[in-house]
Amino acid sequence: MLRDNIVIHEGSLKTLKRFKDEVKEVKDGMECGMAFENYSDIQQGDVIECFEVTEVARSL
Question: What are 12-29's pLDDT values in tens digits?
Fold first, then answer.
């Protein structure tokens, strides 16, 4: 999560909801609700960047 281009939180998405249903994704432009692990101080103007971390085994 970014505020004024400064990283203020890195963590996992706890829940994503569309109306009262928990969902895996929400289409662009649709309203949704989000909660993050160990963070609740979201303010108007904050930027949420989402990414997936994938571990890849090294090979020689």
Answer: 999 999 999 999 999 999
